[in-house]
Amino acid sequence: MSKMSHINVIEKYEEHRVAIHNLLSSILSCFADDKMFEKSDEELAEFLNSLCSYYPFVSLLYLLDAKGKQICMNVPGSQFKHHPKIGLDADRSNRPYYLAAMKADGVAVTEPYLSSVRRELCLSASMKVNNDDSTIKGVVVLDIDLSSMLAILTGDSRRIHFEPYFKAMYTLIVLGLFTVALMLLYAAGVECLDVIYAMMTPEKRLEMPLGVVIYLTLSLAIFDLGKTTLEEEVLLYKDVLRHSSTRRTITRFIAVIIIAVSIESLLMIFKFALKGDGEHIIEAVWIIIAVASLLVSLGIYVYLGSKAEGMLLNNRDKQKAG
């Protein structure tokens, strides 16, 4: 469970675009007025802190004059105090949020872009404020941390705080699996040395080195299981609210089990065939049939899951179009 990539953030933004724009429009239109341009930086900071108690995803607040020149320092939100307080007298007249605000009658919301301060995806909500004589007094701009906003809107903000503990636990489990794989590799190496010694000693009877293959196969299966766990639960981001992520994880784990059990069943067939113990081959055949059934069931699960998700996406697109 890693941090969302920019692609993941943009995909989730597209899913909740209408809700995000409506929320930002309601937030900014409720407090943006001409009195804000008379407040000092300290008063703006106090005001923003009270706003962030309800909306912690607000990262910056700043004011522009009618020509797009910033007339105050960047005021960071309570969750983003590390932001440098800069920006005074900066020319923002060519920025999309200023241009959109000048054309709009209400709140304008930009598309996601990389913040020059945090290098993270953010949105800017802007709104022009008029004087009593209908001339433009300035523009109020809010920068929004998009990842934080999506986490709050989807109810995922609490889980994020536990992610380091989840990652630590999965890491310990993976280290244990890798340790077992190394032990099996060591056992396979010892078995190989015994086989080589038997080949070099004429008086010793050479047996088929099936133990080496078994150890190596088990080591491969356990290592692959640990690798899958490490990638799925520690290194890669997994959206627990989306069924495709769960389907991907289940598919990878079941695939590892199918490969390991298939190899073991083949080894059983070879072992019984070489020893002439044909009466036990049927047991290995039943295992192969079980693996085939598991593979068919996995294919049906993947097909039905992808088809169901496609139907959900189509319904969502129809609702947006309507």
Automatic annotation (TrEMBL):
Gene3D superfamilies: PAS domain. One of its GO terms (cellular component) is plasma membrane. It holds the Pfam family dCache_1. Residues 41-153 form the Cache domain. Its main location: membrane. The chain crosses the membrane at residues 168-188, 250-272, 284-304. It is found in: Cell membrane. This is Cache domain protein. It comes from Methylobacter tundripaludum (strain ATCC BAA-1195 / DSM 17260 / SV96).
